[in-house]
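--- STAGE predict ---
source: upstream dedup step, 1 unique chain passed
mode: sequence only
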Amino acid sequence: MFAPLLAEAAAPSGGLLDGFVQLLNGLGVSWSGLIAQMINFSIVAFILWRFAFKPVMATLDERQKKIDSGLKYADEMKAKLEQAQQESAAVIKHAQVEATKLIDEARKAAKEFADREQKAASDRANDLIAKAQQAIELEKKKMLADARGEIARLVVVTTRRVLEKELSDAERTRFNDSAVRELTGA
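--- STAGE serialize ---
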């Protein structure tokens, strides 16, 4: 249907504009209606552009800017988070090193304290042993002195009993004195 009309419009009968007008007339389009439609379309397009598309485009631009800003902020926060994680990892590592150092120092101090206490306990034990040995030696000397005194007394008593029966008083005294001298000198 459009092909014959196009062929007529392209014919060299009166020019391109005349052919176009004939084509439009053949299609049933009137010039006054077409111009009115074009004006209406221009008014609607202007109103849509001014009150619909322009605010929508402004809103879309605003949203795009907010989205870009949000993405930029997210990237910045991601970088800050990574930096904070690295810093916290460094702090944790430093804390672990410090903790290990403190633990080693505490172990060393505990070992030194234990060694000092063990040496002190050993010294106290040696002192107690030495004092006990001195006390034993003093007790031994005292017991020996007491035993000598008791033996001397027993010897004197025994000698007196023996001598009372057979010796005179002068001999008894001489034997007693001699026995006492030997026992105290021994």
